[in-house]
């Protein structure tokens, strides 16, 4: 996308709908194993409580298309790539909010605080600039201010393409493969924490995300397991 910047809004919307349709068709061919570590935490089934879903940037496609969300909003960046993602989200019924830690962050947080009263919210907590699979404190701050619990999410596919981006790849399942999506147990954050008090809870969320991703990778028997905190891919160890 860096070589050619598409600015026509109608064209962007048309391309986004095409991407959404193609992705839906791809995921229809896949066998999906949806695992909930606690009752009624899946975004694809009705539930009474609203949650904040923590997803790695490279697992974004799996989170979007493993099922149809019931009442979801999501934060996307304000740069050009974020516009494409926002249009795809709208095409699949997800309400996008535009912002980042550098541009529009305060406005986005206010919007998300309001949205958290009636929507589930998905945040790619290592995006949009990385480093890969390293939690940024924004989702923990939002949990503290909104009173919503965080659901860590992991995704892995038995066979997948992994096109490289600037700082991460994107997991794209191959047709007819098996995908595993895991929703971890809800994580509570004490109310009204200052930004200086977030550290221990950011570390706890990082630990939960790392463990959950390792579990998903092992279920999938995928080529890379335990790729955390920006570490290089390592092959799974075969049993003796």
Topology:
Blueprint: H1 9-29, E1 31-36, E2 51-55, H2 60-65, E3 72-76, H3 80-91, E4 95-98, H4 105-115, E5 120-124, H5 138-146, E6 149-157, E7 160-161, E8 172-173, E9 178-183, H6 199-220
Q: State the helix count.
A: 6
Number of domains: 1
As a percent range, the share of strand residues is: 15-25%
* Helix content class: 25-40%
Would you tell me the structural class of the helices and strands? alpha/beta
Shape: globular
Number of strands: 9
Rg over C-alpha atoms, rounded to the nearest angstrom: 17 Å
Average pLDDT, to the nearest integer? 85
Largest sheet: number of strands, sense, barrel closure: 7 strands, mixed
Order of helices and strands: HEEHEHEHEHEEEEH
Q: Strands of the biggest beta sheet: in what spatial order?
A: 1-9-6-2-5-3-4
Low-confidence stretches: 235-240
Distance between the termini: 44 Å
Fold and architecture overview:
- By secondary structure, the chain is α/β, with parallel strands linked by helices.
- It has one domain.
- Helix content is 34%, strand content 18%.
- The protein contains six helices and nine strands; from the N terminus they run αββαβαβαβαββββα.
- The chain has helices spanning 9-29, 60-65, 80-91, 105-115, 138-146, 199-220, and strands at 31-36, 51-55, 72-76, 95-98, 120-124, 149-157, 160-161, 172-173, 178-183.
- The strands form two sheets. A seven-stranded mixed sheet has the order 1-9-6-2-5-3-4, with helices on both faces. A two-stranded antiparallel sheet has the order 7-8.
- Helix 3 links the parallel strand 3 (72-76) and strand 4 (95-98).
- Helix 1 packs across helix 3.
- The longest helix has 22 residues, at 199-220.
- The radius of gyration is 17 Å and the shape is globular.
- The N and C termini lie far apart (44 Å).
- Residues 235-240 have low confidence and may be disordered.
């Amino acid at each position: 996308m860096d070589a050619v910047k598409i600015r026509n809004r109608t064209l962007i919307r048309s391309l986004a709908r095409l991407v959404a349709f193609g992705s839906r068709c791809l995921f229809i061919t896949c066998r999906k194993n949806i695992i909930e570590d606690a009752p009624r935490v899946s975004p694809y089934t009705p539930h009474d409580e609203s949650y904040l879903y923590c997803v790695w940037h490279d697992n974004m496609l799996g989170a979007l298309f493993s099922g149809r969300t019931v009442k979801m909003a999501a934060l996307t960046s304000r740069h050009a790539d974020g516009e494409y993602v926002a249009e795809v989200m709208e095409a699949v019924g997800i309400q996008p909010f535009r912002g980042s830690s550098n541009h529009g962050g305060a406005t986005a947080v206010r919007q998300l605080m309001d949205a958290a009263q009636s929507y589930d919210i998905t945040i790619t907590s290592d995006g949009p600039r990385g480093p890969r699979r390293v939690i940024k404190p924004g989702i923990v701050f939002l949990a503290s201010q909104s009173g919503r619990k965080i659901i860590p999410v992991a995704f892995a596919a038995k066979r997948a393409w992994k096109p490289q981006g600037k700082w991460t790849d994107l997991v794209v399942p191959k047709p007819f493969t098996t995908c595993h999506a895991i929703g971890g147990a809800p994580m509570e954050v004490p109310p009204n924490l200052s930004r200086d008090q977030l550290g221990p809870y950011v570390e706890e969320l990082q630990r939960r995300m790392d463990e959950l991703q390792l579990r998903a990778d092992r279920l999938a028997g995928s080529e890379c397991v335990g790729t955390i905190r920006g570490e290089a891919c390592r092959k799974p160890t075969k049993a003796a």
